[in-house]
Amino acid sequence: MKAGKIVKLGMACFATAILLTGCFDENENRVMKYEPGVYKGKKDTALSADQMRALRTRAHLQSGVVKPGGGGGKAPSRDVRKPMTPSVELGVLNNRARNQRGP
To answer: Which tens digit of pLDDT belongs to each residue from 45-93?
Structure first.
């Protein structure tokens, strides 16, 4: 055989070996057929009493329980807008609605 043919044969064998490395056992236990709403994985193990207690404590700490933080009450309002009478406010809102309705 010529050296060129040997090199080509060696490259073909090398390429085949590279392609076949994708067929290892890592895909052996994977779910290949999916069904909506059906879990095909391993069953979960039950949690111990200590683990359940730790999870409850963590959930309680993250629950956002409001506690008094100190300080005063609500700050006094410094609103400088003129108060609107109910009839003016209603008229403004009706005009806005008429304008937004379009032709």
So the answer is: 999 999 999 999 988 888 775 555 555 556 666 777 766 666 567 777 7
3-state secondary structure of 1: coil
d(CA 55, CA 44): 16
Measured CA to CA, the distance from residue 39 to residue 48 in angstroms comes to 23
| Contact criterion met (CB below 8 Å) for 40 and 31 | yes
DSSP state of 96: H
Residue 11: half-sphere exposure toward Cβ, Cα within 13 Å: 6
Distance (Å, whole) CA 18 – CA 49: 49
